[in-house]
Write a structure and sequence with these properties.
By secondary structure, this protein is of the alpha+beta class. The chain contains 20 helices and 17 strands. It is about 40% helix and about 15% strand.
C-alpha cells in the first residue's frame, strides 16, 4: 500500500521533501547571474512595419503567408538574446502563457502550486552549473522581454532557464506520452541522388494553442556556425536544426528513470552540437562532454560524412549507433546501440510502448519506397495507417502521423535545404528554405525567407470528410474527458454513439464509452465496448491491461 501511495503521489511527496531541504540547497542557484560583461548590452528599438514584419536594423521577424514566424538574428550571446526577445516579444509571452496557464489548470490548488514551485527550485538547484555560459547569457537576454505575470513562479531569467528543462522534467517524472517522435535518414542507393536525406516528426504535444505558432530561427552567431532551428518562442535550445555546414540534429525521447537533480537540458546539448560541429565525430565529442538527466536519442546527419548516426545519451550511459551494411537509419523512442542492449528501461520500453511498432512501420514504408526524395519523405511523415496499411484510427500513437505533431521537417544537408510543415499537423504545405541564400550577404528585409519553387503541396486529406470527422471527434473527446472526471455528469447514448462513429477504428472512444457505463455501474452495457476496444490496435501494453482490468471487473459484477 505504501509503495502504491508513493507511485501515485510521487510529485507531492517530492515536494514535501524539497520544502524541508530547499533552504540548504537552492540559495546559490536562485542568486545566480549569467556573465554579461564584454557583450553588447544595448540594442536599437524595434520597428513595427506591419502585422507581419518587425525589424531591428538587419535583424527581423516576419510572418509568412504559410503561417511560419521567421526570425533572423546575429551577434554575440547577449545581443542575440536581446534581439530575439525584443523581436519575438509577443510570441515569447504567448508561449509562456499557454504553457504556464496549462500547469495551473492541471494543478488548480494554490497549496499544491506552492509545493510544485518549491520542488522546481530544489530540482533545478544545479541546472545553472550544467548549462554552457554562452547559453545562460543568451537565455538571460531573451528573458528580459518575458511577462511579469509569472514572477511568483520564479524571476524571469530563472523561469526561462527552468523552461528549457521542462521537456526533460516532463518525460522523466511522468513518462508522458507527449513525445513519440519518429525520424529516419537515407543515403547512397536509398535516395534519388545518392545524397543524405533526413526526415522527422516532432510529436511533442502541450495543447493545440502551444503548437499554433511555429518559429523558424535563422541564427548567425559571432562564434560558431550559422544555423536554423525549428521550435517556438523563447526556445534557445534545438529540437530540429541544421547548420550551414550541412550538419543536422533531431531529438527523440527515450525511457528514463526519475532523476533527482537537473543537469544539462537535452535541447541545449543539441544546440551546442548544431552551433559548433561540422562532422559526426565533432558532434559525438560535444555530446560526451555534457551530463544529461534524461534518456534521449540525438540523430545527427552530416553532409561531410554523407550519412547519419544516433548518439544515445542518458544519465548513466552513452552509446553511438552507426548502421553497418545499410544506407538507412531509423529512430523512434528506444535505443539501438550496444551499451543499451541489456538496459532494463530500454527493454521494457520496447516491449510495452508504441516505439517498436512505429519503428517497424518506418521500415515497411522505406522498403516500399524506391529512391527516397523530399516529396516521398513527406509522404512517409504524413502516413496515418498501421502496419500493412491497417486502419488503426486517426490519432493513434502507433501511426507515424499521430495528428498532433508540433512540426515535421525534412533536411537535405548537401544542399543546405529544409522543408518545414505548416498547420494543421503535418498536413499543410511543407515550405522550403535554403540556408545558403538566407545567410548570404544579399539577404535583406525585402527578400522572402521561403524558397517558393520547392514548396511541397498540402495533403489532400485536409479536404476530406474523414478529416472533418476527426476534428469533430477531438472536440467530443475533450468533452468526454470532462464527463469522466465528474461521475455525476450525464451524456446521452446518442452523443456516445456519435463519438464512436466519428473515429470508429480507434480503440480510445470504445474504451471511454465503456468507462462511462462502468462509472454509472451499468456493467452489462459497458462490456461490449471494452471488448470492442480490445479488438482494435491498442497503443501500449499498459493501455491494453487497463481495458482488460475494467472488463474483468464488469464480468465479476454481473456474475
Amino acid at each position: 500500500m505504501l509503495k502504491l501511495f508513493f507511485q501515485k503521489n510521487s510529485i507531492v511527496v517530492l515536494c514535501f521533501i524539497t520544502i524541508l531541504v530547499s533552504s540548504c540547497g537552492t540559495s546559490k542557484s536562485i542568486k545566480h547571474k549569467p556573465i554579461l560583461t564584454g557583450y553588447t548590452n544595448k540594442i536599437a528599438e524595434r520597428k513595427i512595419h506591419s502585422d507581419s514584419l518587425i525589424t531591428i536594423e538587419k535583424n527581423k521577424l516576419k510572418l509568412s503567408k504559410y503561417g511560419h514566424w521567421q526570425l533572423f538574428v546575429s551577434g554575440d550571446p547577449l545581443e542575440r538574446g536581446l534581439l530575439t526577445g525584443s523581436l519575438t516579444r509577443e510570441l515569447l509571452q504567448y508561449q509562456d502563457r499557454v504553457f504556464l496557464d496549462k500547469i495551473e489548470e492541471i494543478v488548480p490548488s494554490k497549496f499544491k502550486q506552492k509545493l510544485l514551485r518549491s520542488f522546481l527550485k530544489w530540482f533545478n538547484r544545479k541546472l545553472y552549473l550544467n548549462v554552457k555560459e554562452e547559453y545562460k547569457t543568451e537565455i538571460y537576454g531573451v528573458s528580459r522581454f518575458a511577462s511579469d505575470k509569472y514572477n511568483h513562479i520564479a524571476p524571469k531569467y530563472l523561469r526561462s532557464l527552468y523552461l528549457h528543462g521542462a521537456h526533460d522534467i516532463g518525460h522523466a517524472l511522468q513518462d508522458l506520452a507527449l513525445v513519440g517522435c519518429s525520424s529516419f535518414a537515407a543515403w547512397g542507393n536509398k535516395t534519388s541522388d545518392g545524397k543524405l536525406l533526413l526526415a522527422r516528426n516532432f510529436d511533442f504535444y502541450a495543447g493545440d494553442d502551444f503548437a499554433k505558432n511555429k518559429l523558424i530561427s535563422f541564427v548567425k552567431p559571432t562564434e560558431g556556425i550559422p544555423f536554423v532551428s525549428v521550435a517556438w518562442g523563447g526556445m534557445v535550445g534545438a529540437v530540429s536544426a541544421m547548420n550551414k555546414k550541412g550538419l543536422t540534429v533531431t531529438l527523440n525521447a527515450g525511457k528514463s528513470s526519475v532523476p533527482l537533480v537537473a543537469k544539462t537540458p537535452i535541447s541545449l546539448v543539441a544546440r551546442e552540437i548544431i552551433q559548433y560541429a561540422s562532422t559526426i565525430n565533432e558532434a559525438i565529442a560535444i555530446a560526451k562532454k555534457r551530463t544529461v538527466f534524461v534518456a534521449e536519442s540525438i540523430m545527427v546527419g552530416s553532409a561531410a560524412d554523407n550519412k547519419a548516426v544516433l548518439i544515445e545519451v542518458s544519465p548513466s550511459n552513452f552509446g553511438v549507433y552507426d548502421v553497418t551494411n545499410s544506407n538507412q537509419l531509423i529512430c523512434s523512442n528506444h535505443f539501438q546501440s550496444k551499451p543499451y542492449k541489456t538496459d532494463k528501461n530500454n527493454l521494457k520500453h520496447i516491449k510495452e510502448s508504441h516505439s517498436q511498432y512505429r519503428f517497424e512501420k518506418m521500415e515497411e514504408l522505406l522498403e516500399q519506397t524506391e529512391k527516397l526524395s523530399p516529396e516521398k519523405a513527406v509522404a512517409i511523415l504524413r502516413d496515418r495507417s498501421g502496419l500493412k496499411s491497417k486502419s488503426i484510427g486517426y490519432g493513434n500513437e502507433k501511426a507515424l502521423n499521430q495528428l498532433l505533431a508540433h512540426h515535421g521537417v525534412v533536411f537535405k544537408p548537401s544542399e543546405k535545404q529544409l522543408w518545414v510543415s505548416t498547420n494543421p499537423y503535418q498536413l499543410g504545405a511543407f515550405v522550403a528554405y535554403d540556408l545558403d541564400e538566407i545567410f548570404s550577404e544579399s539577404f535583406n528585409e525585402k527578400v522572402t525567407f521561403e524558397k517558393e519553387s520547392l514548396t511541397i503541396a498540402a495533403d489532400s486529406f485536409i479536404n476530406s470528410q474523414a478529416y472533418i470527422n476527426y476534428e469533430n471527434y477531438r472536440i467530443i473527446d475533450r468533452h468526454i474527458d470532462v464527463v469522466l472526471s465528474n461521475p455525476e455528469t450525464q451524456i446521452s447514448s446518442e452523443e456516445l454513439m456519435q463519438y464512436i462513429a466519428l473515429n470508429s477504428n480507434l480503440w480510445i472512444p470504445h474504451y471511454k464509452v465503456g468507462k462511462y457505463y462502468y462509472q454509472k455501474k451499468w456493467y452489462t452495457k459497458a462490456i461490449p465496448y471494452f471488448e470492442a476496444a480490445l479488438q482494435k490496435e491498442v497503443t501500449t501494453i499498459p493501455d491494453k491491461k487497463a481495458i482488460e482490468k475494467h472488463l474483468k471487473k464488469c464480468l465479476r459484477k454481473i456474475n
